[in-house]
Amino acid sequence: MLGSYIKELRIQKNLSLTELAERAGVSKSYLSTIERDLQKNPSIQFLEKIASVLDTTVESIVQSEPSMSKDQELPNLDNEWISIVKEAMESGIDKKDFKEFLDYQRWRRNKE
Fold this sequence. Notes:
Order of helices and strands: HHHHHHH
Structural class: mainly alpha
Low-confidence stretches: 65-72
Number of domains: 2
């Protein structure tokens, strides 16, 4: 999900949709449709502008997998985490739902 990944990067950089659009010189409404995966085929020029502001590469965005450095690798998950993840998957929660939950939690913490 290219749009979801762009949104995730934007949030990690603490940028609003408006800020990213202005810094990249792209339309806020178009960026919004990309992030919501309503538009799924942005131009290379658009991706280059976005990637530049987000300090990443077009390749990384297209692959929708951030390149992780050693200090960013996931720690070993203990049995409780594994159990929670399995329970979530079995109850029908998908990755998108889980990411939305995390986004909401970040938003809520920033409001407090």
